TrEMBL record:
Residues 1-24 form the signal peptide. PROSITE patterns: PLAT. The keyword Signal applies. This is PLAT domain-containing protein.
Length: 149
């Protein structure tokens, strides 16, 4: 029960932060396509942190996604979309598992495809697409980083 309450508190905090920074249709549309491997026990119900950075490592976008429900199941391809006021030339991906349950201590991710669509007058007009090939297990307490810089 305490773990569920902690997970709920993290999600509420993340939603409050995002509600304060997201400005609807202004800014940039981020679209993630996330492929979970089809191996036994490869899915997760954990809270997954997606971290995107530029080459200098300075600017970043971090998105927390709860694996409860239909997301990140064995063999699934999940699509997630969100708005951010900032965009940058993303070339690094970090993945972490937070608040894992008793049965799902790890997650096998094949890839994360990131598409950033900008405003025509924005800093990065048009769209930017990166496909980060992960092909490894993400374990609690260990950050997986894919560097394409």
């Amino acid at each position: 029960m305490a773990m569920a309450m902690a997970k709920l508190a993290i999600l509420i905090l993340a939603a409050a932060i995002l509600a304060g920074t997201s400005n609807g249709r202004q800014g940039y549309l981020y679209e993630l396509e996330v492929k979970t491997a089809n191996d036994a026990l490869s899915g997760t119900e954990a809270l997954v942190a997606f971290e995107f950075y530029e080459s200098s490592g300075g600017a970043g976008v971090i998105r927390l996604v709860d694996g409860d429900g239909a997301l990140f199941k064995k063999g699934s391809t999940d699509r997630l979309m969100f708005n951010e006021p900032l965009s940058f030339k993303t070339c690094r991906l970090g993945l972490r598992l937070l608040d894992t349950g008793l049965l799902d201590k790890e997650w096998e991710c094949e890839y994360v495809r990131l598409r950033i669509e900008g405003e025509p007058s924005g800093q990065f007009p048009g769209e930017v697409i990166r496909k980060f090939r992960v092909n490894q297990w993400v374990r609690p307490g260990k950050r997986v980083q894919i560097d394409m810089c």
